[in-house]
Amino acid sequence: MDYKLISAYLDYCKTHKRLSSHTIRAYKNDLMQFYNSDHDNVESYIEHLTQSNIKTNTLRRKIACMKVFYNYLKYQNIIEENPFNQLRFQFRTEKVLPKTIPHDILKSIFIYLEQKVIVSKTDYQKQHAERNLLIISLLLSTGIRISELCHIRLKDINLSNKTLHIIGKGKKERILFLGDQTTFNLLETYINKTRNESNDFLFPGKHSL
User: Fold this and answer.
1) Each residue of 157-204: pLDDT tens digit?
2) Fewer beta carbons within 10 angstroms: which end of the chain, N or C?
3) Do 111 and 80 share a structural domain?
4) Contact 66/42 with Cβ under 8 angstroms?
5) Do 51 and 25 belong together in one domain?
């Protein structure tokens, strides 16, 4: 690849496409990386990039940059065909860890829900406040999914052994130990005060409460 072609393309991006200096700088870095490499064709260079440890988004950007550059060369009749038109790419899927809520925010939420229980003026308000506090406490202390929480039935709870029987994705079953005493106390109080056998779910729908 001739460096003059890269320079001419970058000038074209600036004068005709009116791209920002930041974008042009990124294009230049990607194209110069290929220019300075030991690879004399795009196929071997892309294979080299694919086997490296760069992030998928970075790889996509580099390929897109080079593909547009070769489109420019074809448009200028410098090459007959864009080699990227014959290439197919498979990008690996990167696993992204879920974002977590900071501890101080979780603590603030818990304190707020506790205050809602304290300031409740009616039994109905207190019942709902205690339920909401229990829901958050169960989610935080056990790590169960919201869908799993919604499907907990009274028969899944063993207060004597402090365990929960959970049916998760793919109907996979597991037993969770209620090691957090605060959560266990909230659960025990909620069941004894508000739940009855007329509805099998721990947290029935709003019309069942």
Assistant:
1) 999 999 999 988 888 899 999 999 999 999 999 998 876 666 788 988
2) C
3) no
4) yes
5) yes
Host domain of residue 45: 3-86
> Does 93 map to a domain?
no
- Residue 198 DSSP label: T
Do 15 and 79 lie in one domain? The reply is yes
Please give the pLDDT value at position 209: 41
What is the C-alpha R_g of the chain? 30
CA 125 to chain centre: 35
pLDDT, one tens digit per residue, over 43-60 is: 888 888 888 878 888 888
DSSP letter, residue 205:
-
Q: Inform me whether the pLDDT recorded for 129 exceeds 90.
A: yes
Tokens of 44: 């071997």
**Residues 96-107: pLDDT tens digits?**
777 888 989 989
pTM: 0.55
Cβ atoms of 43 and 87 within 8 Å: the answer is: yes
